[in-house]
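Aim 2 progress update. The chain analyzed this quarter is reproduced below.
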Amino acid sequence: MTFRFRAPDQHVQYLRHPGGTGDRTHKALTNAIESAQKKIESNNYGIRKNLLEYDRVMSEQREIIYEERLRVLNGESMRDVIYKMITDITEKLCRYLHQ
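Predicted structure tokens:
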């Protein structure tokens, strides 16, 4: 995802022709840059937050799969677990189709 910053026209004009209004222009330009940085940082925070949630879900799923794998490697029968999975999916599909 790309994030573009577009400076307001008055800031672009100042950068092309500096001088004239002095400290007020510098302050306005500084404020515009700070505002753009806050927007970018906020966007980056949202990306990191979503990534952490994704990692958490993946970790939980990985733990479940590893536990089931260990059960298979230890020679346990997975017949009942697989039968329950098939039953659950079939019931959910039937409910979905009858909505």
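The chain is about 80% helix and 0% strand. The radius of gyration is 28 Å. These observations will guide the mutagenesis experiments scheduled for the next reporting period.
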